[in-house]
Write a structure and sequence with these properties.
heterodimer; A: alpha/beta; six-stranded mixed β-sheet; B: alpha+beta; eight-stranded mixed β-sheet; five-stranded antiparallel β-sheet
Chain lengths: 176, 355
């Protein structure tokens, strides 16, 4: 029986401050959630493998706290990133524009980068500030000639769709 | 260019870890403490001969920049505040800078935990303030929306602009008051389901309300099938009688048109309105009790307007004498004679506005 090949891929978590980038990584890598908001700075790198039928992907996940400030996102962070998870906060309408902003930033550095869009904090249904139409429109702005960027509603708190987001990006990277 | 051994001595003296690399990015010499900082675990005791990207995850994908950077005068790679779980026994941050040096590369790794911690605290405070600001803005927008939908827009603006809170009571002003209500409402409510009645009324109030608002009327209440609005309060409107009469005539025309359209489609029976306007003194302000205020106008002027509306035939606009006097130069009207209004001692002259 032949073993599936292993691949190492760098991916970046991108989005405005306090949208839940670190929480999504923590849920994905460590399977836990912390309700306190602790602002991040710099970069934290985590690793986790995703097993697909075609290959096992060792994801090097860059949690880019530098992206908390639009001007602070350096090209050094994005170099070598083959994919990005671009996150907005389901309860803060003004964070939605960062889907397009960060998708463009990532593609400027790597035009073939694969992107998965996420509206996080979907458990806070009563505080929802983004309609399905808003999300559809914003996601359409992130499509390019290579791919249509899928989007997910996720919750780092409940775990809803967190695994699915990373799995989806992993599949996009394998098929790239 | 300074001698590498001198640079190494200065860096060691400053407590900064470093590595000298060749053109192939392999480490040729490094400071003794450098191996403790690499990504791979367990950390090797010496890292001579390793490639930079083999030791630090952070260089992944940056190989081309590093190679190009050998000839550049600026740092070819810099990553500030890289989080490490274990940095001398506790979590901390590193900053890695790579510069081209003598046909190779010099990597400098400094412990920036203290600076990062200060920056993180400041950023945390800034972000929390911004989140609070977001929430405050969102609550304000919601309150503004609610206020503008439950009191007349002009009253809402005034309430938000003032620093003091509204008090019960009001001021005497000359106002024009417009009432409109459905002819045959009791029968309508008897024959339709309540949801249908509400839809019928809301459709008409949409038409009437937007026209009244267009003329600057303050719509202060809906009571069943009746809409009441005040002109010349709270904002000054010297032409208030003309505004009220014009709003009434436009409303009548628009409601007739709506009826024609809907009845033509066979959807519903006509829903005719009667409209009454009266001008005169009233006290305008807040009525109610300390926990629940309504902005309204009180006085005989208001009662007469309501009674004129009740006395008007289907699709008729009736005006009191002071309204007529104020608008007669601009609006065609005809007297309908002294009218005995319900509940009043004597008759008053009423005029039918024609257009």
């Amino acid at each position: 029986m032949s073993e599936t090949p292993e691949m190492q891929k760098k991916i970046c978590m991108l989005g405005a401050f306090a949208v839940g980038k670190t929480s999504l990584v923590r849920r994905f890598v460590e399977g836990r959630f912390d309700d306190r908001y602790l602002s991040s700075i710099g970069v934290k790198i985590s690793r986790k493998s995703v097993v697909l039928t075609q290959a096992t992907l060792n994801l090097i996940v860059w949690d880019l706290a530098g992206s908390e400030d639009y001007n602070g996102l350096q090209a050094s962070y994005l170099q070598g990133a083959l994919g990005g998870i671009v996150i907005c906060d389901f309860t803060r309408a003004d964070t939605l524009r960062s889907w397009e902003y960060y998708t463009c930033r990532l593609r400027q550095v790597n035009p073939s980068a694969r992107v998965v869009l996420v509206a996080n904090k979907a458990d806070l249904v009563e505080a929802r500030a983004l309609s399905d139409d808003d999300l559809h429109r914003a996601s359409a702005l992130c499509d390019d000639a290579i791919s249509v960027a899928p989007y997910f509603l996720s919750s780092a708190k409940t775990g809803e769709n967190v695994e699915a987001v990373f799995q989806r990006l992993a599949r996009l990277l394998v098929s790239a | 260019m300074p001698d590498p051994s001198l640079v190494s001595a200065v860096l060691r003296y400053q407590g900064i870890e470093y590595a000298w690399c060749d053109a192939d990015r392999r480490i040729r010499e490094h400071s003794p403490g450098l191996p403790r900082l690499v990504s791979i675990q367990p950390a090797p005791s010496a890292v001579t001969g390793w490639r930079l990207e083999e030791l630090f995850d952070e260089f992944m994908g940056a190989e081309a920049s590093l190679s190009e950077g050998m000839c550049a005068s600026e740092p070819c790679f810099r990553l500030a505040h890289i989080y490490r779980e274990n940095l001398g026994g506790q979590p901390g941050y590193l900053t890695i800078t790579v510069v081209g040096y003598l046909s190779g590369l010099l990597m400098i790794v400094s412990n920036t935990s203290r600076e990062a911690d200060t920056t993180r605290r400041l950023m945390q405070q800034r972000n929390e303030v911004m989140l609070l600001q977001d929430r405050l803005n969102s609550v304000n927008q919601r309150l503004d929306y609610l206020l503008h939908h439950f009191v007349p827009a002009s009253v809402a603006r005034q309430l938000m602009a003032r620093s003091d809170l509204p008090q019960l009571g009001g001021e005497r002003r000359t106002v024009s008051v417009l009432f409109a209500d459905v002819r045959g409402y009791t029968l309508l409510a008897e024959t339709l389901e309540p949801e249908e009645v509400m839809n019928v009324l809301n459709r008409r109030f949409q038409v009437a309300g937007s026209l009244i608002a267009e003329y600057g009327g303050s719509i202060n209440q809906y009571a069943g099938d009746q809409i009441m609005s005040i002109f010349n309060a709270p904002d000054d409107q010297p032409d208030h009688a003309l505004r009220a009469a014009s709003a009434a005539l436009d409303t009548r025309a628009a409601l007739l048109e709506l009826d024609r359209h809907l009845v033509g489609d066979g959807q519903v029976n006509p829903v005719p309105f009667g409209i009454g306007i009266n001008t005169g003194p009233a006290v305008v302000g807040y009525l109610g009790f300390e926990d629940r205020f309504d902005y309204t106008a009180i006085g005989d002027t208001v009662n007469v307007a309501a009674r004129l509306s009740g006395a008007a035939n289907a699709n008729e606009v009736l005006m009191g004498p002071q309204t007529y006097e104020a608008v007669r130069e601009f609006i065609q009207a005809q007297p309908v004679g002294p009218v005995q209004l319900k509940g009043r001692a004597g008759p008053i002259m009423a005029y039918q506005a024609l257009g």
